[in-house]
Design brief:
Largest sheet: none
Distance between the termini: 55 Å
Number of helices: 6
Shape: globular
Radius of gyration: 18 Å
Structural class: mainly alpha
Strand content: under 5%
């Protein structure tokens, strides 16, 4: 009886966390979808950025759709983190590398991970440092770093 009562708050907490995960996931997907449409209109077909964002939105929505079937919130949360990391790195590669505003976004990933656990935070600090080292030596590794944002719009892009 006591064991069953102890599990009930865990179920409620898991349900609350799943609702938050879905809310955040759908909000991020909607924001990126709007931003993707804006980029598509502003940059036209000449840029790969809108397509990268559309792929990110599709990945987020697919992750949330699959969550309805497997009911493993932690797995969906981890997939969302990995998708965000990959998208941030691709975003940096196509918007100037270290000159990209995505550097700030990449630096915030360990902060969120530390909110989950110290171990996960330390792992993400390592991942971010390795990412910066790889980006720094990107020419040596033959990783193309470009800036697809037109010169007249770069300051506005950084502000946004």
């Amino acid at each position: 009886m006591i064991e069953a009562m102890a599990r009930e708050p865990d179920k409620i907490l898991l349900q609350q966390q799943t609702v938050v995960l879905k809310g955040i996931g759908y909000t991020v997907a909607a924001c990126f979808a709007i931003f993707s449409v804006f980029l598509y209109i502003a940059l036209g077909n000449e840029s790969i950025m809108p397509y990268l964002f559309f792929a990110y939105v599709a990945g987020l929505l697919l992750n949330l759709l699959v969550l309805q079937f497997h009911h493993k919130a932690m797995l969906a949360y981890q997939v969302m983190i990995y998708l965000s990391y990959v998208m941030t790195v691709l975003f940096m590669l196509f918007t100037g590398g270290f000159q990209s505003p995505a550097v700030f976004i990449l630096c915030t990933l360990p902060i969120g991970a530390f909110n989950t656990s110290r171990k996960q935070g330390k792992i993400w600090v390592g991942i971010v440092l390795i990412t910066f080292i790889v980006l720094y030596f990107s020419e040596s590794f033959r990783i193309p770093v470009t800036n697809v944002i037109p010169e007249p719009h770069r300051y506005l892009f950084h502000l946004a």
